[in-house]
Amino acid sequence: MKTSLLCRAVWALGGVLLLAYVTPVAANVVISGTRVVYPANEREVTIKLDNVGNEPALIQAWVDSGDPDSRADQADAPFLLMPPVVRISPQRSQTLRMTYTHDPLPQDVESVFWLNVLDVPPLPKSTDSNFMQVAYRSRVKVFYRPEGLKGYAEDTPAAVIWTLVANGKGFALRGTNPTEFSASYNKTELVVEGKTYSSKGGMIPARGVSEFPLENLQSRPQGSTSVRYEWLNDYGAAKLAETKLAN
C-alpha cells in the first residue's frame, strides 16, 4: 500500500483541502485486505470497506494503471467499480463490486493495476473561519489473473533469480522473475558473512526485472552471500525466506 504523505493542496470551500497517501490506520475508512486478486473466470470481485471512525465518510473509488497522481476522471484501467461514490456511516461497512470490462489484456501473464479509495471527511459544522480538511487516499494493488497460467503464485518468490549489480550510486539487488505471476516484497536484504545490507521492498512483475538499491554497500562483497527477503502472498501475509545469490 502506498504511504507517502502529501500529494497536493488546493483551496476549497474557504479552507485548505489536502489530498494525501496514508496508511489505513490514518484513514477512517479502511480497505479489507492489502491487495485484490481478480481471477479472469470471475464475473466480479467484491471489496469490503469499513468506516472505523465516529463520523460519516464520503468515499470515491477508482482503478488506475499505475499513475500515483491519477484522479477518478482519469481512470484508465479496464475495471468498473460500483458504487464509485458512496457515503459510509460511522462504524458501518460498504461493499464495492469490481467488474472487468473485457478490454484486451495479456492472457499469458498477470496484469497489475491499482485500486484507489479516497476518504473525504465531512465539512465542519461551522465554517466561520478558515479550516483545514484532510482527505486520505489509500492505494492497493489489483492483480488480474488470466486462466491457465503455469504454476502457482505462491511459488513465484522462490523462482526469482537474484544478482548483484552496480547502479552508479553503489550496488543493487536485481530480481529476474521468469514466472507468469508477479512477486511483491516488504523488504529485501543482502547477507554477507553475517552482515546485512538492507533495501526497500517493491514488486517484480511477471516475466519482468526490478532492482532494489542497497544501503551502505560501496564495493562488491567477498565471501559467502545470500539474499533474504520478506514476500507477500495473495492474502497479504508476509513470509520470510532466504536464497543464494546467483553471482
CATH class of the largest domain equals Mainly Beta
Q: What proportion of the residues is helical, as a percent range?
A: under 10%
Number of strands: 18
Give me the CATH superfamily of the largest domain. Immunoglobulins
Number of domains: 2
Number of helical runs? 1
Distance between the termini: 32 Å
List the helices and strands and how they pair.
Blueprint (H helix, E strand, L loop, with lengths): L5 E7 L2 E7 L7 E3 L3 E5 L5 E7 L5 E8 L14 E4 L2 E4 L4 E8 L10 E10 L11 E14 L10 H4 L1 E6 L4 E6 L6 E10 L2 E10 L4 E5 L11 E8 L5 E7 L3
Parallel strand pairs: 2-11, 4-11
Antiparallel strand pairs: 1-2, 3-5, 5-9, 6-8, 6-10, 7-9, 10-11, 12-13, 13-16, 14-15, 14-17, 17-18
Model description:
- It is a single chain.
- By secondary structure, the protein is mostly beta strands.
- The chain has two domains: 140 residues, Immunoglobulins (Immunoglobulin-like, Sandwich), CATH 2.60.40.10; 92 residues, Immunoglobulin-like, CATH 2.60.40.
- It is 2% helix and 52% strand.
- The protein is built from one helix and 18 strands.
- Strands 1, 2, 4, 6, 8, 10 and 11 form a seven-stranded mixed sheet that branches. Strands 3-5-9-7 form a four-stranded antiparallel sheet, with no helix packed on it. It has a four-stranded antiparallel sheet with strand order 15-14-17-18.
- The chain is globular, with a radius of gyration of 21 Å.
Features:
Immunoglobulin-like, Periplasmic_pilus_chap, globular, chaperone, 247 residues, mainly beta, 7-stranded mixed sheet, disordered N terminus, 4-stranded antiparallel sheet, 1 helix, Chaperone protein EcpD
